[in-house]
Amino acid sequence: MYPVEKDKPNMLKFSQAEGFLPQAEMLEIKKQRVNFSIGVPKEIAFQENRIALVPEAVGMLINNGHNVLIESNAGKAAHFPDHEYSEAGATIVYSPEEVYKANVILKVAPPILSEIEYLQPRQVVFSALNLPGQTEEYFKRLIARKITAISYEHIKDKTNSFPVIRSMSEIAGNTAILVASEYLASPEYGRGKMLGGFSGIAPTEVVILGAGTVAEYATRSAMGLGALVKVFDDSIYKLRSIQNRVNAQLFTSVLQQKVLLKALRTADVAIGALHSIEGRTPCVVSEDMVKEMQYGSVIVDVSIPQGGCFETSRVTNHTHPVYKKHGVTHYCVPNIASRVPHTASFALSNFFAPIMNQIGDSGGISAVLKMDPGIRHGVYLYQGIMTNRYIAESFSLPWKDIDLLMAAF
After folding, report:
1. In this structure, what is the dihedral angle of CA atoms 375, 378, 383, 386, given to the nearest 10 degrees?
2. CA 150 to CA 146: how far, in whole Å?
3. Reduced 3-state DSSP string for 89-142
4. Residues in the chain with pLDDT < 70?
5. Which helix (H) or strand (E) segment is 216 a member of?
6. What backbone torsions phi and psi does residue 27 show, to the nearest 5 degrees?
7. Structural domains in the chain plus CATH codes
8. Cα–Cα distances in Å, from 207 out to 3, 73, 252, 296, 311?
9. Which of 27, 43, 195, 273 has the most CB atoms less than 10 A away?
10. Residues paired with 310 in a beta bridge
11. 108, 48 Cβ separation under 8 angstroms
């Protein structure tokens, strides 16, 4: 009970005790919005056909007060001509020197050495990192430019997952089945066989190694065509999870060699969809096991960027995507999403455009990094300071914790 003073009315005493009397108004401190320029250079990495922003997203950013510079023909490979960008309000520039004058650079592939020379101090670069293909010299050159570099494959969302990796994996999973279907029906590389199931005909058998996002969408596509799908993974949790996600009772098994070999012997298609968080993907199918597969069957090794999970896999490209080994057709293109650049570009743009607006609304990249731990997780360079411990230790580079840097700035 609160003490009651005799010289004050009870209601007033109660209000004072409970804090119900009028208080000084606490006004919200308004964030200072900023407009900035966004540069989208033409991708010059080998067979990178995607673009980071589609015309519709550019129009939205222009309407929000930002300036977008598009290098001429940057969207050509993804079937977005220059006039669509100019009609959306973008400025078309005709040299990399001009596009790299922007405050923020949006790329798909990581900057190659010749592009690093265009980068300017305090510039922000969003791109892939593709860590297995980088060197110590590469990171030293980036550090020397004193930029802030953000790897989109390391950015997290509110569910603690990796949204860009997931969207590209969804596309890769679907595309892997479409690619397999194309080559399985080919008289040169396959057996003239349709992928699916039909009345009175035994269904096509598809073996999928892995139970992550790529495997999930490959499974959905294959089952949608009527194929019989068998999924293998080391994790019982993942196998149970993929059954729940596709809402079907699949044939699932842990990676036991005898069980896997039995499945491969009758398989028409094998999809490599294993993923390693760091380092090389485990090679779970030996050359002797590939020899046991049917003549004219098809392997699509989506894991090839990390070395592949078939011993007979070797890197191919979109110009020469397949080869035959022991009578089995192998498709081992690392950048499989670039086979469908129009769709993949929309997926990337759906991710990048809201982040650009978030940067503007929050008052700049530093404010966003302080507030958003998901985007902060993607930072590996902050104003020329290495902030990714794994990269630093891999290449013997000094580093500082990004959380401590944010507290200091």
Report:
1. 150
2. 13
3. CCEEECCHHHHCCCCEEECCCCCCHHHHCCCCCCCEEEECCCHHHCCHHHHHHH
4. 1-31, 278-279, 409
5. helix 213-224
6. -80, 140
7. 37-154+340-408 (3.40.50.720), 163-339 (3.40.50.720)
8. 77, 40, 10, 15, 16
9. 273
10. 285
11. yes
- Nearest Cα neighbor of 282 from 239, 256, 240, 311 is 311
Query: Pairing mode, if any, of strands 67-71 and 205-209?
Result: unpaired
Which amino acid is present at 189?
Answer: Y
Of the candidates 213, 245, 216, 247, the one whose C-alpha atom is nearest the C-alpha of residue 231 is: 216
Question: Of the candidates 322, 272, 297, which has an alpha carbon nearest to the alpha carbon of residue 195?
Answer: 297
Which helix (H) or strand (E) segment is 42 a member of?
none
Amino acid at 171: I
pLDDT of residue 140: 96
Please, which residues have CB within 8 angstroms of residue 290's CB and are 6 or more apart in sequence? 264, 299, 310, 311, 312, 325, 326, 328
Separation CA 267–CA 207 (nearest Å) = 6
DSSP 297-362: -EEEETTGGGT-SBTT-----SSS-EEEETTEEEE--S-GGGGSHHHHHHHHHHHHHHHHHHHHHH
Q: Are 44 and 15 in contact (CB under 8 A)?
A: no
Query: Which residues are within 8 A (CB) of 267 and not within 5 positions of it... i.e. 6 or more apart?
Result: 205, 206, 207, 230, 293, 294, 297
Pick from 306, 342, 341, 298: nearest CA to 323? 298
Query: What contacts 293, CB < 8 A, 6 or more positions away?
Result: 264, 265, 267, 270, 299, 326, 327, 328
**DSSP state string for 260-303:** HHHHHHH-SEEEE----SSSPPP--B-HHHHHTSPTT-EEEETT
DSSP state for residue 215 in the 8-state scheme: H
79-96 as b/e: b if 16+ CB within 10 A? ebebebbeebbbbbbeeb
* pLDDT digits 0-9 by tens, 305-327: 889 999 999 999 999 999 999 99
